[in-house]
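## retry 2 of 3
previous attempt timed out at serialization; input unchanged, resubmitting
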Amino acid sequence: MKIELLLVPDCPHGPAAAALIQTALTDTGVQATVSETLIDTEDQARQRGFTGSPTILLNGSDPFAQRDAPAALSCRLYSTPDGPRGLPSLRDLRQALKRSAAG
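## retry succeeded, writing output
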């Protein structure tokens, strides 16, 4: 599996997102290569369908995408069991990894 972490420069949630990905991979046993990509222009955001930082792509797809969300160079909020947060929940990321790994 390929995981790409899309970030705006100096994203306050970047380090926590990278750690969350590693924890989810360890917990699930899913094998993946992880890379980070900086998105620093509106053109890049539009081209990549980037809707905020951090965005986690699993094999090129955003498992947390919200329909009709505009491209934006901004922070992203995720819906979690504890309310809106700057990262998806570990439980939700684990589930997304398992679904993506299964095909």
